[in-house]
Amino acid sequence: MIKDSIFRAYDIRGIYGVDIDENVAKHVGKALGTFLGGKGKSVAIGYDVRKSSPTLKKALVEGLTSSGVNVWDIGLVPTPTVYFAISHFGLDGGAIVSASHNPPEWNGFKLCKEKAMLCGWGMGLEKIKEIISSKAYIDGEAGNVLDKAEEVNNVYQKFLLERTNIRRRLKVLVDPGNGSCSQYADKILEKARLEVVAINNFPDGSFPARSPEPTDESLKEVKKMVVENGFDFAVAYDGDGDRAVFIDNHGRVIEGDKMLALLIRHFIHKADEKVVYEVSCSKLLDDIVKEKGIIPIISKVGHSFILEKMIIENAIFGGEIASHLYFRDVYGADDAIYATLKVAEMLSASHESLAEMVNNLPKYQTTRIVFSVPDEIKFFVIAKLNTKVIEKGFTPITLDGVRVNLDNGWFIVRASNTLPQIKATIEAKDSNSLSKLENEVISLVTESVKEVKGLDREAQVEFKRVSIT
Q: Whole-model pTM above 0.85?
């Protein structure tokens, strides 16, 4: 019996040995192969550093080939390398065995169709689940497995470097966090003539140095090293290498929307260009878009939604607060290594430091709050909160969660698609307005959770504020 809970908004994910095992992987492979059309189709398959990934990858491949699909095995690679292989070589789809930034005991599958479009919910994953439930698999002559690791990696690295122009040597600190970019990213950056120091730079699925999710808290060592050793900037990658979290030369973590704003300022020179960003990004992006005279495309949070808009709109850049940065240059995908190269290119052409660039962005005061809410009720809580917001006379925007724009600021409350959490972002021009909005949001979410769970008024709802840099 395969659990419904492993099918999430963007991928299939769960705890290895509890929710996901080799049997699940084989069924996922059969279903993906069937979904893509079976015999004659070709897919790229990679896997991350997690200890369960090699055997899950093997089972996934068995399922795929049983449906007649040919598999390009590209080995242990960052997720963006799989995206690149699908798009660059015109494959029919692919998959990466990974749980991204989740804890070590988790694993899963990111499934793709053509152009590396992720099979998220509403974009194919629901059909794959239906194929598994009904066991309506294609069976026939087995497909072939081709070892394409060396070929794909060589072409990928050459492709990135050909699209990078770093004008002066910079000193860069790199922290792959023992994830899939270990012993991989630093070599590409060095070929771009950067002076690279790498820490936590060996693959280890137990993630001994820090969490696979790079956060302000988990990057204390990196922040300290940047300042003490005079690096131009530092970058930390998540477990599977599709997120690049940048730290400026003052040791400050820079959020993804701010990095996107800097890239827009430096690289965009035509007024008709388009950029894609998600609903919870800071208003400073709206200000930068107006400054440059370009076209903003607002999206739901998540790779599936942003990549679709990147491709349809032919956007030059895209971004999320969570430090996914998307580039037309790499077929619209979020690629942490390419993001590092482009930030280095930007800095190498400027007389300003990265800290000075950040300081020159529009200023807003922001708070982010994470509420612990069980998966099974979090979307009901959002629905309840939307009702409360309307009752208060607000007009919410419900593209993704509930967003309310006010004269003195704005807030958005949305359910995490990957964790048992509800996340709130509150932003205002001054601290007094921010404090009032924050109290309003805490009250709205707390009341909504209590009503959905049937708790009394005195019950506590757990939440924490997230650092804003």
A: yes
